[in-house]
Design a protein that fits this description.
The chain has about 325 residues and is α+β, with helices and mostly antiparallel strands. It is built from 6 helices and 18 strands. A hairpin with a 5-residue loop joins β11 and β12. The longest helix has 19 residues. The radius of gyration is 22 Å and the shape is globular.
């Protein structure tokens, strides 16, 4: 199947690291009777083991197994069919959620979390890992029916949990969160250091969208709550899944109506306006640390900056 990102007109941030994929999710196949049983019995199927958010990685590639290589766990999820042009093209891949890393599958030092390894993975493996991590997190936290409290059981190839008592069905959730590069009239960027972070770590402002709220309203509210800054004209930049545990980050940029930034003290410890020269120098001299390379925050900062942060700023502007 053709990668849909190749045929879409992408927003300004383009294809972000955790948005890459090379798998057809093949949703129509999920409801077939005995589908997972048939997949597990097929030698053509490939299995992605995942334990406590970690997967085996060898030579910058996920180690996908044959079903015969490991015992089938309680939670198995169909992730889709690999696109043409990728390794294992045409094969169907299932997720196997293990309780802990298994040295029989791969040496314990070859198990990595998504944030550790995503920058080294190709589109196929990134998409599989992101989807696997997100759906595994959902299964781990939605084991009982919210209506009656009975234990639920997976169905629809792992994409639904069904309550055998009241027959209700429950679907994976994704929590939308906005993230914003706030720019002032002098073309400086506002970055904040969260209370929960080590001192010296800075990133763009972000927060969850509340029920009944538009994305644009969430941008205005969150920036105002965390910094006291009123922002104008939010502009959409792009989105990226963030399965830690179940977010979708929706990136915006917005203009600051004033520059009197005051941290709220609950979420934000400190706030600072940076010129490009100031940000370059402080990152270079290790006075501050900014968001990591696979995050949408890093892409947003570098879009404003005009290139990678390890290069001196130029006159180029996005």
């Amino acid at each position: 199947m053709t990668d849909p990102l190749r045929t879409l007109v992408l927003p300004p941030l383009g294809s972000l690291p955790l948005s890459r994929a090379a798998t057809d999710r093949d949703g129509d196949a999920r409801t077939a009777e005995h589908f997972l049983e048939d997949l597990w019995a097929s030698a053509d199927t490939r299995v992605l083991p995942l334990a406590r958010g970690k997967a085996p990685v060898v030579d910058s590639a996920l180690r996908l197994l044959a079903p015969a290589d490991l015992a089938r766990p309680d939670v198995v999820v169909y992730l889709g069919r690999v696109d043409e042009g990728s390794a294992d093209a045409g094969r169907r891949v299932v997720l196997a959620v293990l309780e802990e890393e298994d040295a029989a599958v791969a040496p314990l030092d070859q198990w990595f979390g998504l944030r550790e390894i995503a920058a080294s993975l190709d589109a196929r493996d990134t998409g599989l890992f992101v989807a696997g991590a997100a759906i595994a997190n959902w299964h781990a936290t939605h084991t009982h029916c919210p209506r009656c409290g009975a234990a639920t059981v997976p169905s629809h190839a792992g994409w639904v949990r069904r309550c055998p008592r009241d027959r209700s069905e429950h679907y994976p959730r994704t929590d939308p969160a906005i993230i914003v590069s706030v720019i002032d009239d002098d073309d400086r960027i506002l970055l904040g250091s969260a209370v929960a972070w080590p001192e010296g770590r800075y990133s763009t402002l972000a927060g969850f969208v509340e029920p009944g709220e538009s994305l644009e309203a969430a941008v205005v509210r969150e920036v105002g709550e965390e910094s006291g800054i009123e922002v104008l004209s939010p502009e959409y930049l792009g989105s990226q899944p963030w399965p830690f545990p179940a977010s979708l980050m929706l990136g915006f940029t917005a203009r600051a109506a004033h520059t009197n930034a005051v941290p709220d003290g609950e979420e934000m410890r400190s706030l600072r306006w940076f010129t490009r020269e100031e940000l370059f120098a402080e990152v270079r001299d290790e006075k501050i640390v900014v968001a990591g390379g696979v995050s949408i925050a890093r892409a947003m900062i570098e879009r404003w900056y005009g290139g990678p942060l390890d290069e001196e700023p130029s006159g180029a502007r996005p």
